[in-house]
Write a structure and sequence with these properties.
Blueprint (H helix, E strand, L loop, with lengths): L1 H9 L2 H5 L4 H4 L7 H30 L6 H36 L4 H12 L8 H25 L7 H21 L2 H4 L17 E3 L6 E3 L10 H25 L3 H6 L1 H8 L6 H24 L7 H8 L9 H22 L6 H21 L6 H10 L3 H18 L1
Antiparallel strand pairs: 1-2
Helix pairs in contact: 4-5, 4-17, 5-6, 6-16, 7-15, 7-16, 8-14, 8-15, 10-13, 13-14
The structure holds zinc ion (2 copies).
């Protein structure tokens, strides 16, 4: 593996592709460029319809309480927009790649993967701003993960569990504090981190409608009932959520086997490592609420600052689920919250065009990495690209590997 990587460093992409035509590199199944555009359009349409149907169906399950005729109409419209954006991006990537080859007379490192993907990624303009924000956060997380894995592979960075846990605790402290300080408007939309700390509720008195008496809030916490009950309820809720997510992740890829041998698969499921996400989520939320409640009771009032020790200690739950992606997700959340704060203060521009440009750049860069260096790319990105391009990226990668192997045999 290391030899392969070392050898690949000496082969330039331009050298590999010199003298080759479109059908040798970009569309091996269809010799004609026009036929290839049509082929990509059809395959991508099928892939996008299937991929986004499952994503939007999951959203319907999560928002089942909001479902009504109007919501379903809105949801269907958004689904169509997402499918169209994915389909246009895939189709245009072929058009841009074939056009650049004809104009430049050959394939060059950045004109075959990076530039066509970057230009076609502007199809994201069809998406709503909220969705774009989430896509961008995911792309940033996956790109940083790629860079870190690349540094770790070359020995320039050591990823130990202790280092990652300490980094998570610090980043989580910042994320919790910022989310507690930021206004409700800043937290509106889709949040990247699954846990949003409850806001500080100021003591208030409300006048009853039926009499002149007033009801004053006597509890120092922002929940009803006892603190013990609140901590236990919240921790259990997230423990069950973690369990459900991990079960789906384990069972979905082997769905057929689950149907044929359900008992055997259930036995395999009851392994301790399959409960790591549940233990992470449960203890993370439990510790956070327990610390905030304890400090509120001791000081006689709740405060945004309580998120600092609570976020730090809750971060220790990372030990149960020490994944680099989780660490980077909380890092991206800090970035997202800081950006929102900067936008509210007028320091960071709230420009849709800028967001589209950053998204397009990161997608182009990541697609390039997915083809030439798939080993350290996030598997979710690889599967998404595979679905959106209708398997076309896999063919490109196969061609790239074949060209590289032929070069090394020379
Ligand atoms: Zn072509
Ligand atoms: Zn409490």
């Amino acid at each position: 593996m290391r030899a392969m990587v070392a050898a690949s460093k000496h082969v330039s992409f331009d050298e590999l592709c010199s003298g080759l035509g479109c059908k040798d590199v970009y569309h091996p199944r269809t010799p004609s460029c026009l036929a290839s555009v049509w082929d990509m359009n059809q395959r991508s349409m099928k892939g996008c319809i299937q991929l986004f149907a499952s994503v939007y169906a999951l959203q319907l399950i999560l928002h089942r309480r909001k479902i009504n005729r109007e919501y379903l109409k809105h949801h269907a419209k958004n689904y169509a927009r997402t499918v169209l954006a994915g389909n246009l991006a895939s189709t245009f990537s072929v058009i841009f790649c074939c056009t650049s080859r004809r104009l430049l007379g050959g394939f060059y490192r950045y004109t075959v993967l990076f530039l066509p993907t970057m230009l076609s990624a502007f199809a994201v303009v069809l998406e709503r701003r909220e969705k774009k924000e989430i896509y961008l956060c995911s792309l940033i997380t996956m790109t940083v993960e790629y860079v870190i894995r690349h540094l770790a592979r070359t020995g320039r960075l050591q990823l130990t569990k202790l280092r990652m846990c300490a980094s998570f605790m610090l980043l989580n402290t910042a994320a919790m504090y910022l989310m507690r300080c930021n206004s409700i408007e800043m937290l509106s939309g889709i949040n990247y981190w699954p846990f949003i700390p409850p806001r500080v509720e100021k003591r208030s008195c409300k006048r009853r409608e039926d009499s002149d008496q007033t009801d004053c809030k006597t509890s120092v916490c922002n929940h009803s009932g006892s603190c013990w009950r609140h901590v236990f309820q919240e921790a259990t809720k997230y423990l069950l959520l973690g369990m459900a997510v991990q079960m789906l992740r384990v069972l979905l890829p082997q769905f057929r086997r689950v149907v044929v041998h359900p008992a055997e698969q259930l036995q395999n499921l009851c392994v301790l490592k399959n409960f790591s996400l549940a233990m992470f989520f449960g203890s993370y939320v439990g510790i956070y609420h327990a610390v905030v409640c304890l400090l509120s009771q001791l000081r006689g009032q709740d405060s945004e600052v309580h998120a600092v020790p609570a976020g730090f200690l809750a971060g220790s739950a990372f030990w149960f689920y020490p994944k680099l992606t989780t660490l980077l997700m909380v890092g991206t959340t800090v970035f997202q919250q800081l950006t929102k704060r900067g936008q509210a203060l007028g320091v960071v521009p709230r420009s849709d065009f800028l967001m589209n440009c950053i998204f397009a750049f990161f997608l182009g860069a990541m697609f390039h990495c997915r083809i030439v260096d798939q080993e350290i790319c996030h598997p979710v990105f690889v599967s998404m690209m595979n679905a959106i391009s209708g398997g076309r990226d896999e063919e490109c990668r196969a061609v790239y590997l074949r060209l590289r192997d032929n070069y090394q045999k020379r």
